[in-house]
Amino acid sequence: MNLLIQLALSFGLLSILAVGGGTAVLPEMQTLLAHQFDIGHTQFVHIYSIGQVAPGPNMLMVLIIGFQVAGLLGALVVLLAFFIPSSVLCFYAGRLWSYFGENPWRRSIQNALEPISIGLMASGVYAVGKASIVSPLTAGLALITLYLILRTKINPVIVILGSGLVATLITQFL
Questions:
Q1: One domain, residues 48 and 27
Q2: Are 30 and 44 in contact (CB under 8 A)?
Q3: d(Cα 53, Cα 164) in Å, to the nearest integer?
Q4: Of all residues in the chain, what percent carry a pLDDT higher than 70?
């Protein structure tokens, strides 16, 4: 199968499955990239990290994946395949949702989707954490970073970049 078609189909499907946001499909995306496109877990975490600190939506990381797999055209294909299906689905689902207004089953569906979305996002966090925390150093830095982000008013981008700098300095000089 043509590589660009394979990218479009893979990321189009991930787009439709991304209930609750792109973070929900991170574990599946990580597995897909490892098996079909030869992008390992460490490389995936690096790409994800760049997506987190880059301006704009964090799921623009798919651009980097597409570029790495198939160059500039791959980046464009993955970008369109990942964002268009879910955007169209959300548009029509939103219209349908508004149409039914205050029907009693609407609240039931919303209540059922909330824990599903939270669970999918938590699995994404777990997948990235599992691939990222590989030593006592990374575990310590992750805990310090989490503490600083939750308990201080320091910009999270500064905290994450600082954590990366500390990790680099420690591994270079120890």
A1: yes
A2: yes
A3: 11
A4: 98
